[in-house]
Amino acid sequence: MTVVYQDSKSKLAQAFAKGAAESMLPLLTASEDKKAEIRYVVDSMAGEGLRVLCVAHKIIPEGELGQLSQRQLTEKDFEFVGLVGLYDPPRVETLGAVRKCHMAGITVHMLTGDHIKTATAIAYEVGILGNMIPSAQASTVVMAAEQFDKLSDADIDAIEALPLVIARCSPTTKVRMVEAMHRRNAFCVMTGDGVNDSPALKHADVGIAMGKNGSDVAKEAADMVLTDDDFASVVKAVEEGRRLFDNIQKFLMHLLISNIAQVILLLLALAFKDADGNSVFPLAPLQILWVNLITSSFLALGLGLEESQPDIMYRPPHDLRVGVFTRELIMDKMIYGTFMGSLCLLAFVAVVYGAGNAKLGDSCNQEWNQSCEVVFRARATTYATITFLLLVTAWEVKHFSRSLFNLNPTRYSGPFSIFPVLWQNRFLFWAVIAGVTIVFPIVYLPVCLAVYLALIESWKATKRRFGIGGASTKVLTLEEAEMRAGMFPNGTPVLPLRGEAAEK
Question: Which regions span the lipid bilayer (predicted)?
Fold first, then answer.
């Protein structure tokens, strides 16, 4: 940039110019030795991460005052004044953000207008360049824009890895870099603040303009605006995006596990026939609705509120060609669902053929009758089994590969580390507690038993095992209470209190 000042009294005109050293040196009248010395000092200052400007001056002869509008005539024959070094330190959090990107499989490139040595020093300072660079990439890891622009698209594609740092960039250089990434099927996110960044912001998959110091042109070209101008915020956005993606997978997986388990249970149960040859449902319709709409829904919502997994930024980016239903998710839901459905079927069979009389009654899908006692007990057991399995599964799918007892070993360790992990998600925790609590009134209260077409099994088995309600005591047993409460059809004889017959 050149500025001309003219004294109004003496009419003396002076020109002052500043700019990059390599652009200013051809305009100086200094000898070649002096220019070589200037280059050496510029390289030394740039190697320290300074942005170096060369300042020059000249007095314009009176005869050239009429030629000031012609730039090529004014910008020549300058006398060297000095060098100015500017240091713009990167944010403290930038180094950690770049390291997070590397751990997450994200490559950070820096395209700048600075001197190549300044750009290299800054790249080392923020962690873009590491100490270990493969020898095959050493010649291309840092390039000047002039060298990069001379390469054809085929030459760029032949490079093993695109340059991490390109100095003295023009808008065209940045656009070519974005296009080279697209040819390698890479997802490109571009950040910038100047007018010269606008074309690249437009070509990138996601263009991010700086909100505080960004130009209006850059903001218009970008897809989003970063309000705090902090690169670390971009990394936090990546982490939040991964968290949301994971939670969507957890939400879907829990619901699908529940559905697969019920499908397997209901389909295989078609083989169980009653006296009329009709299939007997292992779960009543209202129980199925309750499991799907109440139990599973709140658990899935809780999984949707999960915090980021501790290793979320230690894994490579998700393949864009694969949606939410990854191979891992499909396998997990099938294995979990099949195992859960098989256990529920086993519980139904155990009650019918183990604790019961192996009789499936008559018309038990419509209403209660005396022949359906075993079926209704088996339904209560099956309902409790699938509910408890869904509650445990909700905690188990908090992480797709880690055990629930080793979910966050860097933060919690020891035999009781599971408790703070479960307490982190308060919504999910109380959803599980509520699910456990609701099972008991549904299974044990007579009113709920009548509504859900089920009969209690565990208390009756316990009573038979320990002889609770013997003939010498006046105890109203649960069977008698159910009969007196009207759970059995009219005409069923009501049993007297045990002990009354003996007294009479």
Answer: 251-272, 284-305, 335-355, 427-455
